[in-house]
Amino acid sequence: MYNNFFGFKEKPFKLVPNPAYFFLSKCHEEALAHLNYAISQGDGFVQITGEVGTGKTTLCRAFLESLDSNTKSAYIFNPKLGPKQLLMTINDEFGIKSDSDTTKELIDNLNAFLMRNKAQGNKVILLIDEAQNLSKNVLEQLRLLSNLETNQDKLLQIILVGQPELAEMLESYELRQIGQRITLSYHLTPLSFSETQEYIQYRINIAAQRQGIKFDRSAYRYIFKYSKGIPRLINIVCDRALLTAFVLNQHKITGTILKASIQELSGRGAIRRHGFADTRKALFLILSLAIALFVTIYHQPLMNKLHLLLRTGRIQKADTVRSLESETKSLDTAAQAPSWSESETAPATKNARTQITRVDLADYLRNMDVHASRYLAFKYAMDLWNVTTENKAFLDSIADDQSFFRLSIKPSGLSIHRVEADMNLLIKLNLPAILEFYPPGSTSPGFLTLSQVIGNRIELGGAVDDTIVVTDQNELEFYWSGVAYIPWKNFLSIWGIIPKHSYKDSIITLKLLLYDIGFTDFEINADYDDVTQMAIEKIQAKYGVPVDGFVGPLTKIILYREKKSFDMPQLTRQ
Description:
This protein is α/β, with parallel strands linked by helices. It has 26 helices and 14 strands. Helix content is 48%, strand content 13%.
């Protein structure tokens, strides 16, 4: 109800595990790095634990969102199942169909699926959230599944995420066979005081459409004292503080506001103590609630309106079109600034360069510092997105390149997607990309950023001394491995892989976006129907990507590019 007052596009402290709001504290960075490392090494069992509210589910969903197309995943978030039900659920998540529901056939079909993916070079992971709720029989079933392997590798990697009781279970004598198979474990801890401040500001920055809200230092102290750094409690108290400030018509969140909010949450407020003895306080509360109710009714966001209409069964396409027109006006005006492609050469930094040195690709690769190139290319790509970067030593020590890019980009609010492609696809996507090269004689890759394409001339940034590397498509493809890392922004917070792992809100938002780019033959509701899938497949075919009807990171990038009004850097001149 306070979104318009503070200038939010949505509530910043909702109690849902939205990966768009995933804050990388040092602890969460390390947990994500552990997960990525485990996947890269093919470890069998991985264990992640944390107290209630420390962000385990959000970590899971952010991790799943970041997986590339070569990794198949099944996500079990309700593990209160029997052994046979678990097998059926896993197979269903992987899209494995069976004519029989016997345990033997379920395992045989799963094993065949795993062998096919192994032959195709894919990795397969099973992630179970709230794993402390697993029964001993189900854990034994998981142990048997971990035996699915070749002579060299595990066919299925299993990640168990749960509360600290999970670790206690697996350390017990009865479950020692599973406990001994845990090759990597990590425990999430609460945020520090400084991280709590950063967490609050991070969520506000994502939700805010304009500046105008500030927490003072005393407010932060009250929040940290109440929450003890647990993200869920931070969300609860901040949401209540924003509501209190809204009722008081204040944009600055003070310690006094926090104290009142915490007293109300704790049941120690003055109203509760005096039983409404103070008539003036009672009248003030009633008036405040009346104002809040009025604002809720007349200023409800688009998504809430859609949910209400869906529940009452009265959603009509004409009403949706009118709502869409008003909702997308902001999208059309969000990208008025000229793109980098309007200049002859894309800038390597936020300041214009006065002198540019150009070198040939072959000459540059001969003397390339492959170790330094990774961060230089990443920084150059972030400059093109107008994002300031910081070189963190502990990230620089990460050997896995994909993990390095994912963890480095997360604080910016952007994502990065790894693809194996050709130049034709990258030109169609029209976005800067970090390209992987193998210089002559080197067994380790180096990196440069594809920054501009002008005719047959290709320019690569991220070289030392702000040098621009110039090449053409033939020479580029001779040295380029075909691996590219594409930075992108999930502008509308469309979460998950639709329809596999996603919220209903994300499907509605997807349909609104499709409607806005010209697909109108479907109802705007939370069903991912055949007409919507056909629209997605048509767009995928246009860009030459696998036509599977699933909306993952690459398809989202394409959809945002199709919209043509989001503020993104470009490779080519229009």
